[in-house]
Write a structure and sequence with these properties.
The complex is a heterodimer of chains A (488) and B (106). In chain A, a hairpin with a 2-residue loop joins β1 and β2. Chain A has 488 residues and is an alpha+beta fold. Chain A folds into 3 domains: 295 residues, no CATH class; 113 residues, no CATH class; 57 residues, Arc Repressor Mutant, subunit A, CATH 1.10.10. Chain B has a domain of 47 residues: Histone, subunit A (Orthogonal Bundle), CATH 1.10.20. With 106 residues, chain B is mainly alpha-helical. The chains are: A alpha+beta (488), B mainly alpha (106).
């Protein structure tokens, strides 16, 4: 991997610049009810139909914490190999906004539920460990719609009070590529754990992106800007690139960077200062008097540990060690829970190595071409495992299998039926093949003489003839064996 | 930042700037008279609290709650009551489904 060195540095007038990035990811907790009320968390319901008096912050309403949300946060923490804090507390983060009825967000400031952890990234230049600073529980705000009316904004509080995990990463990321891998890996871990569905289109996963720059080789951190609420990996990457260049230009022109909150305009591909957030960091946190400290006993944590599924990194090692998959193939298989589940369904009924090859080369080829996700695969896992078994037991050759696969893509049909109907079954009777090969040898005596006098390349000519005469159905292994014997 | 201020380090004083800032952050209308009276009140409160500094608390854990009870927790069960009418009733401006507020976009 000597050619694959990290090389993301931006060119300025005065030399090369390194980009320093840290992410605060907001991940919606998968749960039925909200963090402090019994309202439903269902996405896409009619506006303001899932708002209890607690969520609407009516006077006298008191928050009661959802136990399952605590378990989900601990589970995610364990998945990030993080320290679980037996003692944590809820604080009020105070600010005014139309979609925040309480006038404060219940969050965890000084004592978060989860402490330091890590995420391992597979980069082309090797593995990279990115630090997690902390994970804490907090309430989501409501949603404002700005495009319904020229004068007004509309507020829907259905989202208000849904549990969020804020996962604060250390400023260890150095390129948009690493940011993409980081978000994907984090999302994949949470999907394996079933603690967050990671659906960025529905806002279940969004991030604040902190960006600063420094001259290549410098060890000092520059002043950072925070880009708020970016909801797709592509936009994060574009925003970082724009913001880094903006900062470099300012510094090279003799200016200084103001620490500020900026927003990313996806239409114009630029970041700009958010004036409304001038006081954004003056949240006047204080302990929420409505909630007692959250104390977890070790048994509670141990019980959650026991329910942890196999996580992507562990699975990768198992696939490499037990089934001889390459690091590259294993990384692709584990990258998404949906892919990994599909793979397990195929492999456990057929062959781990062949299943990986067929998925990565043939199936993903088709999916990419048709712009589909694995969950919409035109070929079911059951049928793909059948196809692999047909290759394994010699019923069809790998070449014929590709033809069969093409038909399976057209109409997700059982490959056994396709082979039966189209007469594609492999010709594996040695006697029949011997007759065909004898004929070929008889009709090509000149070639046989050439071959025997040393032109061994001609061997493939004979194989080709045999395949032609069997309409591509001859068992290649058998043909090879018979030819070797006959031409000796 | 007024985050968990550390009162023991030095006496904190409230000036006009601080009052103006807190008023703004709390969305409380402010004027000269109000500011002057607040400066007086808040400083006298702080001075009163300052007495705590006479105690040596270097070996005392911060108190997180005076209630000797565990945090009450509920199960993850959805309550299927639609309270849309009730909660929208209090909105000064609304339409059929939404709270309506002056445009808040940048």
């Amino acid at each position: 991997m000597a050619d694959n060195k990290f090389d993301y540095y931006l060119d300025g007038k005065t030399g090369k610049w390194e980009v320093i990035i840290g992410l605060e990811v907001h991940a919606q907790v998968t749960s039925r009810a909200k963090l402090f009320s019994g309202s439903s968390t269902k996405f896409g319901s009619d506006p303001n139909t899932q708002v209890s008096l607690v969520d609407a912050a009516m006077p006298g309403m008191l928050p009661v914490i959802n136990k399952f949300c605590i378990e989900q946060a601990v589970k995610t923490g364990l998945g990030l190999k993080a320290k679980i804090n037996r003692f944590s507390k809820f604080d009020r983060k105070n600010y005014f906004y139309a979609d925040l009825p309480q006038g404060y967000q219940i969050s965890q400031f000084k004592f978060p539920i989860v402490g330091e952890g890590e995420i391992v990234l597979d980069m082309p230049y090797g593995t990279k460990v990115v630090g997690i600073e902390r994970l804490h529980l907090e309430q989501d705000a409501g949603k404002s719609l700005h495009d319904q009316d020229p004068e007004n904004s509309f507020v829907d509080l259905n989202r208000s009070g849904i549990a969020l995990m804020e996962i604060v990463g250390k400023p260890d990321l150095r390129s948009p590529e690493e940011v993409g891998q980081y978000v994907k890996k984090l999302r994949s871990i949470m999907r394996y754990l079933n603690t967050c569905d990671g659906n960025m289109d529905e806002g279940s996963l969004r991030a604040d992106v902190n960006v600063s720059v420094r001259k290549q080789g410098s060890q000092q951190l520059g002043t950072r800007c925070e880009i708020k609420n970016v909801n797709s990996i592509k936009f994060m990457q574009q925003a970082i690139e724009y913001e880094a260049k903006r900062q470099i230009d300012i510094i090279e022109d003799g200016g200084t960077i103001n620490q500020e909150t900026r927003l990313y305009d996806t239409k114009k591909n630029e970041t700009r200062s958010m004036r409304s957030k001038e006081d954004a960091h003056d949240y006047r946190y204080f302990p929420d008097p409505d909630l007692l400290p959250l104390v977890l006993d070790s048994e509670f944590i141990e019980n959650i540990k026991k329910t942890l599924p196999e996580l992507p990194d562990e699975k990768k090692h198992r696939l490499m060690n037990d089934f001889g998959l390459s690091s590259y193939d294993a990384s692709i298989i584990i990258s998404e829970k949906d892919i990994s589940d599909y793979y397990e369904d195929v492999a456990k009924n057929s062959d781990y190595k062949l299943a990986a090859n067929w998925m990565i080369v043939e199936l993903f080829g088709i999916l990419n071409k048709e712009g589909k996700e694995i969950k919409d695969s035109p070929v079911s896992a059951v049928n793909l495992s059948k196809l692999i078994n047909l290759i394994k037991n010699g019923t069809i050759s790998g070449k014929i299998a590709k033809t069969v696969f093409e038909q399976m893509v057209q109409r997700n049909e059982n490959p056994e039926v396709i082979i039966e109907k189209s007469g594609l079954k492999q010709q594996s009777d040695p006697k029949e093949l011997e007759i065909i090969i004898d004929n070929i040898i008889k009709n090509n005596q000149d070639k046989v003489i050439e071959y025997k006098s040393g032109k061994i390349k001609l061997f493939s000519f004979f194989v080709g003839q045999a395949m032609k005469d069997t309409a591509g159905k001859g068992n290649p292994q058998l043909i090879n064996n018979i030819l070797s014997k006959k031409l000796k | 930042m007024l985050i968990y201020p550390n009162f023991s380090s030095s006496l904190m004083t409230i000036n006009k700037e601080t009052v103006k800032k807190i008023s703004k952050l709390s969305r409380i209308a402010s004027n000269e008279e109000f500011e002057n009276s607040m400066i007086k009140d808040l400083n006298s409160i702080l001075k009163f609290v300052e007495q705590l500094n006479e105690l040596n608390i270097s070996n005392t854990e911060p108190l997180s709650s005076v209630v000797d009870q565990k945090l009450y927790q509920r199960d993850d069960v959805e309550k299927k009551i639609n309270e849309k009418k009730d909660i929208l009733q209090n909105s000064p401006v609304k339409n059929e489904n939404y709270f309506v507020v002056p445009k808040i976009i940048e």
